[in-house]
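Shipment paperwork, digital attachment
Item: protein structure file
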Amino acid sequence: MTTQVPDLYRTLGVGRDATTEAIEAAYTGWQARLSAGEPISTQEWERLRYAHEVLSNPQRRSLYDSLVAETTVSSLDLSVAVSAARLPLLATPQVVYALVRLAARETTGERRPLTLGLVVDRSTSMRGERLEKVMAAAELLLDRLGPEDALALISFSDRAEVVLPAAVLGTANGRDDAPAWRDPRRQLRSLAASGGTEIYQGLRAGLDEVSRLANGGRIAHLILLTDGHTYGDADHCLRLARDAAARGIGITAFGIGADWNDAFLDALVAPSGGQSHYAAAPGDILTHLEARLAGLGDIYAHDVRLRAGWPAQLSLRAGFRLAPFPQPLALEADPIPLGDLEGRAPLTLLLEFAVAPQTMATRFRLPVEVRYRRPGGGEESLGRAAQLLVQSDTTGDEAPTASLIEAARRLNLYRMQERAWEEAQSGRLDTAAARMRRLTDRYLETGDLKLAQQAQLEAQRLGRLGTMSLEGRKVLKYGTRLLLGQLPREPES
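Attachment content:
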């Protein structure tokens, strides 16, 4: 027999995302109604008081939310595995890793139509092979998308041009208001490189086009291709990215070559839980774009978010999405955006928690709650929790899974290369070079000869020239990300 957990949010008359202020205001409103003589039964008032007591307390609210989520019948599975369920009693901080996996129970379903906006940099630096490959990528979209899918193509330099306005492909050629679609490939071949790089111009035009056809159960997504820095409009771009996420429009960003701002592209895709990627050579564009298309349209949960309701003993120190594509998480957000659950792979996260020093034996929960929207449906939530026990005797604890151990090891590799870059930027050249030499050994242990060679080259370059190369920075950063997304499978039980 399943015990029904009461809906305290409904009792109080607030939503699940209600702030502490909103909860207090709702309770004050009920008190005012009682004082005004509104007939409220003793039983109903006790329910209101209990709802307020639980929801106004962060720890009790977090526990309640996880309990509710655990009783929710869902078509998705959520699992949480920790590196250690028993922790020693220490007066110093400790680290616990959690491997979180969200998967669809059934991996077959109806493909949803797409609305894609391809936003292409055509600044002067894109002249030649880069722009030719981008045009080939656009033609790939035309070939891969179905007649029910919609596409818009926007080019930009210091201004934006709508090359192909958003249209459903099956009807695009017959549109009187879009003559460009009568011969779209000719329009593509007419693109010419010129001007500077103002990404905001292209993103704004792309968002406007996609928004026109972003309803009716469609998956709406912007794909940005650029080879340079944007000039003076980065903050505008980030605000627009947040606006797109609020509308349910995701963003994928591909950097071409080496001279582009990787931190900016990471920040750009973060609000929607999107992906940034490195296309080292123009030929890589087609490969990466095709891989990205594989997941879009086959969506089992949209706008997945991780609620950051940890107990006081825990603080989230790092977070990384491992699959369906590797990307660091935007930890400053609450809830943390995770993107979509795609059919090609479970949504898998690695979370690193710092455990506060403990002076006495204690037991607490590590709750994991995800919220999401079902395709064509409303918002749902799902939660699981791992139990953590802090005590003097930690014998008998189960060993963590091989996947979790390897994920934690590769996350540390990623951090090492990030720190080496920071050290080089701040002038600590000897420290950066030494870290690069250690990275060389670690990459060799992992079996990635290409990354090991690149780390060795960057260590030598630091000693010789006092700097790291932009290409080396991208190779190591995105190569290590790929390692995080290529964990070995657990053996079948």
